[in-house]
Amino acid sequence: MSLMHLSFYSAFTLSSLGLAFHRTHLISALLCLESMMLSMYIILSLWPVENQTTSFTLTPVLMLAFSACEAGTGLAMLVASTRTHGSDHLHNLNLLQC
C-alpha cells in the first residue's frame, strides 16, 4: 500500500471516528460526513487513473452529485433544527418527540 492510499484511508477512518465519537453538534457531524465524502471522491477519482481503465470515470461525478445533495439536505436540516429547537445540539433532536 502506498503512502497516498494510506493517507486517504486514514482520512476516511478519522472522519468516521469523529462522526462516531463527537456527536454533540449537528454541524460537526455534517463536517465529518463531508470529509468522508471528500476522501471517497478523491479515492474514486484516482482509481481509474491507477488501473488505466475508462469504464469507471463517471463514478466520481455521480459521487460528487450525491455529496452535493447530501450537503444541501444536511444544511437544510441544520437551519430547520436551529429555528425550531434554538440550537444544533444533537441531544435535542429526538425522533420520538416529533
Explain what the structure shows.
The chain is mostly helical. The chain has helices spanning 3-21, 26-51, 59-85. The protein has a single domain (3-92), classed as Helix Hairpins, CATH 1.10.287. α1 runs antiparallel to α2 and α2 runs antiparallel to α3. It starts with a helix and ends in a 13-residue tail after the last helix. The relative contact order is 0.13. The mean pLDDT is 86. Pfam families: Oxidored_q2. Its main location: mitochondrion.
In short:
By secondary structure, this protein is mainly alpha-helical. The protein has helices spanning 3-21, 26-51, 59-85.
Question: What percentage of amino acids are in beta strands?
Answer: under 5%
- Could you give a short account of the major beta sheet? none
Shape: elongated
By CATH reckoning, the class would read Mainly Alpha
The CATH architecture classification is Orthogonal Bundle
Rg on CA atoms, Å:
17 Å
Mean pLDDT comes to 86
CATH topology title: Helix Hairpins
Total domain units: 1
Percentage of residues assigned to helices: over 70%
Number of strands: 0
The arrangement of helices and strands along the chain is HHH
Poorly predicted spans: none
Secondary structural class: mainly alpha
Provide a count of the helices: 3
Q: How far apart lie the N and C ends?
A: 47 Å
GO biological process, one term: ATP synthesis coupled electron transport
Keywords: Electron transport, Membrane, Mitochondrion, Mitochondrion inner membrane, NAD, Respiratory chain, Translocase, Transmembrane, Transmembrane helix, Transport, Ubiquinone
InterPro entries: NADH_UbQ_OxRdtase_chain4L/K, NUOK/Mnh_C1-like
GO cellular component, one term: NADH dehydrogenase complex
